[in-house]
Amino acid sequence: MSERWPGDEAEALELAEEAPAEMDEPEQDVVDEAEPEPDEDAEEPIPRLRAPGEHAEGELDIPDDVNVIEGEPDGTRRGVAIVAARFNGEITNRLLDSALEELDRLGVRPAAITVMPVPGAFELPLAAMALAKTRRFACVVALGCVIRGEAPHFEYAASEAASGLQLAALETGVPVAFGLLTVDNAEQAEARVGKGAEAVRTALEMADAFAQLRASAR
């Protein structure tokens, strides 16, 4: 018989119990979490064509073999009504000047233009509705300015004015152009006073389109 030293069996059992545990949990390689280097061959993102919220004009590609009813900013038809808010009058006056200059350029006679001043943006829809219901005007142009920093009820006034002007057009069938500036500060408002002329062109174009539609239905 071979000679065994005291404690050999205990150490052997202890080693046997530890060995499987070490095998069950192999060491894992440390993963390098550094950000991958940019791919120089990757396509560059498409640049913005215009600033967010900026109006983009363009032409529609309409086939030649379909009927088209498209209005033009024609100033030779019936009268045009302008409802203008006195609130922020310095800006609204410039919007009104822009609108009147565009009407003159498009051939609308001064005698065919009616201007109705109202206190503020909240009164624009009611006045636009009243003017449209007279059936004396081919279109109505609403002008005003609401500045966020000067109107604590900015969102409410802007939202209600927009909804009301749309309702006036829908209920009467008379085009009502939205020329209300809703901006964050006076500098933004001054940069957009040309909105008056844009609103005039929109109103006259829609009025002409509606006139063509009525003529085609006879």
Describe this structure in words.
The chain is α/β, with parallel strands linked by helices. The chain has a domain of 138 residues: Lumazine/riboflavin synthase (Rossmann fold, 3-Layer(aba) Sandwich), CATH 3.40.50. Helices cover 41% and strands 15% of the residues. It has 6 helices and 4 strands, in the order αβαβαβαβαα. A 4-stranded parallel beta sheet has the order 2-1-3-4, sandwiched between helices. Strand 3, helix 4 and strand 4 form a beta-alpha-beta unit. Helix 2 packs across helix 6 and helix 3 runs parallel beside helix 4. The termini are far apart.
What's the short story on this structure?
This protein is an alpha/beta fold.
Task: Give the SSE layout.
Elements: H1 8-24, E1 79-85, H2 89-105, E2 113-118, H3 124-133, E3 137-147, H4 154-172, E4 176-183, H5 186-190, H6 195-216
Parallel strand pairs: 1-2, 1-3, 3-4
